[in-house]
Design goal:
CATH topology of one domain: MetI-like fold
Helix content: 40-55%
Number of helices: 15
CATH class of one domain: Mainly Alpha
Distance between the termini: 42 Å
Structural class: alpha+beta
Strand order of the largest sheet: 1-2-3
Strand content: 5-15%
Length: 393
């Protein structure tokens, strides 16, 4: 038995399921304030509401914001000056912070230390002197410094006791405080990711945008160049590009040279993503309308196409920055990146390249901890931004 509805007669109106009742204005006016707030919210506000539900991304964003604020005042946060040497405490292990001494609340303090040299292994052994209580000072005067190389200062958030020591992360082979060097190194390692991604985005958006919008022979050439660059192993390419920089360059020039190298290595993936998006968007009606009104190609790409997926670009940036930080760390660890007197997390890790150093002085590996935390935070933040990029899902 045929249960299908019969076809309508020729000329008869087709069946539909759209209500033809008049628009009920009272139902709109009866909406609650909360419903009205949602329906009238902008795209940016919807993205923020969805991003807030990703708790891990919010915590990561706060953590990264605190780190980037900290690099602005790292001279104040570090207990010691970057170049201060404590020659009596070479390879001193981290000190423990105590609150109680002999059952009494003293406040945050550390015990003084006494060094003995093992003549068999030539290893320095440090023991705490239980009768030497050294209270930690806060908002105090300590080592002098030049704030951002411009303003003289000597104020610190945390300082050792008068004629005391405070090595919360130990010291290195020259008696320099590892914690202070980690704080100073954050300024280079964190900013090189931002500068590098800006350079990479400039190349990726311009080259990928032109390839996706115009196509043709230019698109073909760009795709072949990207395939060649992506087929070269990363480390040999790093070696070749790092060898180009003269050893006579100043640290600032080397810093920008490493930034350019990282930008040249990371623009290919972004260029392909931009190209694929523009290939789809260039067929839209509003692009044809802009062309008929005489808008140039650069204006169409800049004002009409790129804003359509800017949220995806922001999410891509947060995921790409960790790659920049890892690239600088790897180059500096291999001795091909930044060099002293510049201090970064990668340069600090060069102290731990020897197996014997790791065995005897494992605290020299502590600079790897902020690298791991920052990379995880950027990935969690990027995950939250990617989910919030389309708030209607």
């Amino acid at each position: 038995m045929n249960t299908q509805s019969p076809l309508p007669a020729p000329g008869a109106p087709l069946q539909h399921y759209v209500s033809i009742a008049p628009f009920d204005l009272q139902s709109v006016e009866a909406m609650t304030a909360e419903q009205s707030k949602v329906f009238q919210a902008s795209q940016l506000r919807l993205m923020w509401w969805k991003f807030r539900r990703h708790r891990l991304a919010v915590v990561s964003g706060i953590f990264l914001a605190a780190l980037y604020f900290g690099i602005l005042i790292c001279e104040f946060l570090a207990p010691y000056n970057l170049h201060t040497r404590n020659m009596d405490y070479i390879y001193s292990p981290p000190q423990r912070v105590h609150l109680f001494h002999n059952g009494k609340l003293v406040g945050p303090f550390v015990y003084g230390r006494q060094m003995t040299l093992d003549m068999d292994t030539l290893k320095r052994n440090y023991t705490d002197k239980q009768d030497d209580v050294q209270r930690i000072r806060f908002f105090c005067k300590g080592d002098s410094y030049r704030f951002w190389g411009l303003i003289e200062g000597d104020r610190h958030l945390v300082c050792p006791a008068e004629n005391g020591q405070l090595f919360l992360a130990g010291t290195d082979r020259l008696g320099r405080d590892v914690l202070s060097r980690i704080i100073y190194g954050a300024r280079i390692s964190l900013t090189i990711g931002l500068v590098g991604i800006a350079f990479s985005f400039l190349l990726g958006i311009v080259i990928g945008g032109l390839a996706g919008y115009h196509g043709g022979i230019f698109d073909l050439i760009v795709q072949r160049i990207i395939e060649v660059l992506q087929s070269i192993p990363s480390i040999p390419l790093w070696l070749a590009l790092a060898a180009i920089m003269p050893i006579t360059w100043s640290p600032i020039l080397i810093y920008f040279g490493i930034t350019v190298i990282l930008g040249l290595l990371h623009w290919t993936g972004l260029a392909r993503a931009v190209r694929s998006k523009l290939l789809a968007l260039r067929e839209e009606d509003y692009v044809l309308a802009a062309q008929l009104m005489g808008a140039s190609s650069s204006r169409i790409i800049r004002r009409h196409l790129i804003p359509g997926f800017m949220s995806h670009l922001i999410a891509t940036a947060t995921i790409s920055i960790p790659g920049m930080i890892l690239g600088e760390t790897a180059l500096s660890f291999l001795g091909l990146g930044l060099r002293a007197p510049i201090t970064s997390w990668g340069i600090l890790l060069t102290e731990a390249r020897s197996v014997s150093v790791i065995a005897f002085y494992p605290w020299l590996l502590l600079p790897i901890l902020p690298v791991i935390l920052v990379i995880l935070a950027f990935n969690f933040l990027g995950d939250g931004l990617r989910d919030a990029a389309d708030p209607y899902k």
